[in-house]
Design a protein that fits this description.
Blueprint (H helix, E strand, L loop, with lengths): L6 E7 L18 H19 L6 E9 L7 H14 L1 E11 L9 H14 L3 E7 L3 H7 L5 H13 L5 E7 L6 H13 L4 E6 L7 H8 L7 H17 L3 E4 L2 E3 L6 H7 L3 E5 L4 E4 L2 E5 L3 H8 L16 E6 L2 H12 L6 E2 H8 L5 H11 L4 H9 L3 E3 L3 E4 L1 H4 L2 H5 L4
Parallel strand pairs: 1-2, 1-9, 2-3, 3-4, 4-5, 5-6
Antiparallel strand pairs: 6-8, 7-8, 10-11, 11-12, 13-15, 14-15
């Protein structure tokens, strides 16, 4: 592991109560038996990923899905215990659990006990997929909770001691107006979360929404209306004191997502679980999405001598980054941040240490083929290019993918 970089751990729990109509993530409903087998296999992988290194220090742990809160408390406790056994978890580490409303229990006493157990494990941040505060819209999206569940679960989370909560909001749902989305945003702000993530709904192939759009049953929200809604929500959040620090993310002071920042800063992160991705020492990997294959391999009980995978683990993809891959990704992810990316940090990813004017000169030599188009975006007020680096303007965010593509 690189001692100069932070390291995070992402753990994927693919199980959910019900697949949502828009969801293209690797997730599916599962009964208790595969959950138990998966927990055992996951713990084996957590151990395996720690082998062959000096004791790895973790700055962040993120348990995502799927819906991790569908696991039994005992299963989640075993996973957290394994992480602490095989890694050095920083005392101030941000430990996030995705815990969707409606999956924590229907009775207050059950939910309170579950949340209290999470806190006792050291989980200190919740990320909740609220998506909307309109009951009809939630039903249309295939969510299993109601707005009342959201209010109740946040109240109980506060009582359990959680003082760092993220709420997700999805806008541009078919049939939704800008005013509808603005109403959702206002109601979420009223709940007082420390962090809010806002995403424009995308029609992903293989989802019911995609099929319905293809058949004409539903109609996508036009791009112009989508962008109007996005900027309207951004305005509400800024007025409420949230810092817009990444294209889709807003935080109160000191509450930026430390784990997601690893991705945008090109830091190392280990991925464990079905279909999980990792980036370690310049190599990107993605685990198999095949549950049977994953459980079959990781159900092996690794002993001390045979704990490393020896290249036999079931990967879907492994890629060793070139220096250009690294600088390209550094610019692509860095431009997602509102602060943008500096030439110096991009060049560090490339393996160079130039500073000041030399860094600017070297950067634009590497991307010589993009100079003219980047300048054109700057002339249109979409991209700011200065002596230290580059960043998107508010209007540039609307066509961010087109600008980022210049550096790929």
């Amino acid at each position: 592991m690189k001692e100069t970089k932070k390291t995070g751990l992402y753990i994927h729990i693919p199980f959910c109560v019900k697949k949502c109509n828009y969801c293209a993530f690797l997730s599916f409903p599962a009964e208790e038996s595969p959950r138990a087998e998966y927990t055992d296999a996951l713990i084996s992988e957590i151990r395996m990923r720690s082998a062959g290194h000096d004791r790895i220090r973790l700055d962040t742990v993120y348990i995502g899905g799927g819906t991790p809160s569908v696991l039994d408390v005992s299963q989640l406790s075993r996973i957290i215990k394994a992480v602490r056994e095989y890694y050095d978890v920083d005392p101030d580490a941000e430990i996030t659990l995705e815990a969707n409303p409606g999956t924590l229990g229907r009775k207050d006493a059950v939910t309170r006990a579950k949340l209290t157990a999470y806190r006792s494990m050291g989980i200190n941040r919740l990320s909740m997929g609220v998506q909307s505060m309109d009951n009809d819209r939630l039903h249309f999206m295939g969510r299993v909770h109601t707005p009342g569940d959201v209010v109740r679960d946040i109240r109980l989370a506060r009582e359990a001691g959680f003082d760092n909560i993220n709420l997700d909001l999805i806008f541009s749902v078919p049939g939704e107006t800008t005013e509808d989305a603005a109403s959702d945003a206002r109601k979420i702000i009223e709940l007082g979360p420390e962090h809010i993530s806002c995403y424009s709904l995308q029609m992903e192939e293989g989802t019911p929404f995609y099929e319905w759009a293809e058949s004409g049953r539903i109609t996508e929200v036009p791009d112009e209306e989508d962008r109007e809604t996005y900027h309207r929500i951004c305005g509400f959040l800024k007025e409420a004191g949230y810092e817009h620090y990444e294209i889709s993310n807003f935080a109160l002071s000191g509450r930026k997502s430390q784990h997601n920042s690893l991705y945008w800063n090109m830091d190392d992160y280990i991925g464990c679980g079905l279909g999980a991705s990792g980036f370690v020492d310049g190599t990107r990997y993605r685990n198999t999405p095949d549950l049977e294959e994953y459980i079959s391999y990781y159900s092996i009980l690794f002993d001390d001598e045979k704990c490393e995978d020896g290249g036999m683990a079931p990967y879907e993809e492994v890629h060793r980054n070139t220096p250009f891959d690294n600088i390209s990704e550094a610019v692509f992810t860095g431009l997602r941040r509102v602060e943008g990316v500096t030439y110096e940090e991009a060049l560090r990813a490339y393996g160079s240490n130039e500073t000041g004017a030399a860094a600017s000169e070297r950067f634009w030599k590497i991307f010589a083929g993009s100079v003219q188009e980047a300048g054109a975006f700057a002339d249109r007020g979409l991209l700011i290019i200065d002596d230290t680096g580059l960043r998107l303007t508010e209007d540039g965010i609307d066509i961010s993918n087109g600008i980022m593509a210049l550096f790929v």
